[in-house]
Amino acid sequence: MSSQPVAAPNRLDAAVLKVAGVVVLGAIMSILDVTVVSVALPTFQAEFDASYARVAWTMTGYTLALATVIPLTGWAADRFGTKRLYMAALLLFTLGSGLCATADSIGQLITYRVLQGLGGGMLMPLGMTIMTRAAGPERIGRLMAVLGIPMLLGPIGGPILGGWLIDVASWHWIFLINLPIGAVALAYAQWALPGDRPEPSESFDFVGMLMLSPGLALFLYGVSSLPETGTFSDERVWLPMLGGGLLVVGFVLYSFTPKHPLLDLRLLRDRNLTVATLTLAVFTIAFMGAGLLFPSYFLQVRGESTLDAGLLMAPQGIGAMVTMPIAGMLADKIPVGRTVPFALVLIAAGFFTFTQVGTDTSYLLLCGSLFVMGLGMGGTMMPVMTSALRTLTNHEVARGSTLLNILQQIAGSVGSAIMSVILTNELNDSPVIPGAIDPNTGAPVTEAGLAIAVERDPALAQQFPVDPGLLQRGLEFVANSFGAVFWVAFLLMLLTFVPAFLLPRRRERSHLLDDEQGDGRPAAPVVMH
User: Fold this and answer.
1) Is residue 527 part of a domain?
2) Same domain, 360 and 428
């Protein structure tokens, strides 16, 4: 048998798919856990006798942990090797899941969720690194399409799975289910992932860590407090945002000094990476921020159950699964600047339908719009990520994927906070019902608040008879409030076209293997085994 390296085939062979299976399994665990917990918040309120603002930190704490650990991933991957670090992240996430199921207070649950997030935060950037190296330069698009599957299924399958587990068992099972999956993923990773060579020569950037990780955590803490306070003037919002922002700005100025910074912003000198990152950030703010409110519309305006709301979101995932494999193949053959704008048109068209939502908008129209948005999403996210990583060398991939993930995490948190604040402020403008006081909070009851409560529990209308016309006015106000939020998301989606038109429109050579041989020419991809 010849000892010369053989060019990898264009299709994804069994050896590469074996590696991809490990990464997809880990990503499904991490992403599902974010959305599964979202449907359990009312259960946590009743179980731990805590306010909504308090139990919401089971999600916020997880997000902050993600943001804190992601910057460390690039250095740690170089230092310890991607296989060992990926398995350590899987183990930490699985142990955190087990501890969450044992929590007997809301404080313990939040603490264990932070521990879970420290493991989960490393799974996605490490997965992108492993898969990019496994695919070789000619198959990045197709392999990134595979990685996109859990990113699409998580927001759809999470609410359905979480609602079902809570209904048939208990809230503990939304965490316990990760234990057997984690055990399988660890065994699978040990068998399937090839060993890699750690590079312990790089020094760890302690100064950068002391600025970036706390800075991100503080900034996102302030952003996450916005929906609860409803205003930037509250010191819980502006003070951590200011302190965190100053630390992040300080890190940006400092990061060009050390040879190996914690987050390598020098990579942004690559035009493709910069344009793709900007496109992805604006897209994430608009799509992910408003996307979290689609199920809320079905729950609060249409009175659907959590399980039914999750099922109504399924067309979006189906649409994405239709186009994602196609988009992956096209990204390997056609410059993404020629395909992504068309996908964004589909998303914008779907968003426009939701700007017109009312109390009785046709489900056929809404589900059709979600399907069209899914078609567009499947043709957007992974091609943009492929464009970002294609021109990086093998050594830069870990740091490039870390940079992409941290900026996407920030954009998602900012988008969610912006949309939540807009919706909260819109609902707060609802007329107050004279003499009606909420017995739990002591606050006046609004027409919109009462309408939402009755939609959730129709029995309330029997216990406390009210004018049906008042309930209808309140429900229409809530629907109009959602429409206003979706208008903001629609305008932000239109803004995404600006950087998208700057994406590469000509075929460019991959630099993935440039650092594998010293003459500057790309080496041939090696056979994966």
Assistant:
1) no
2) yes
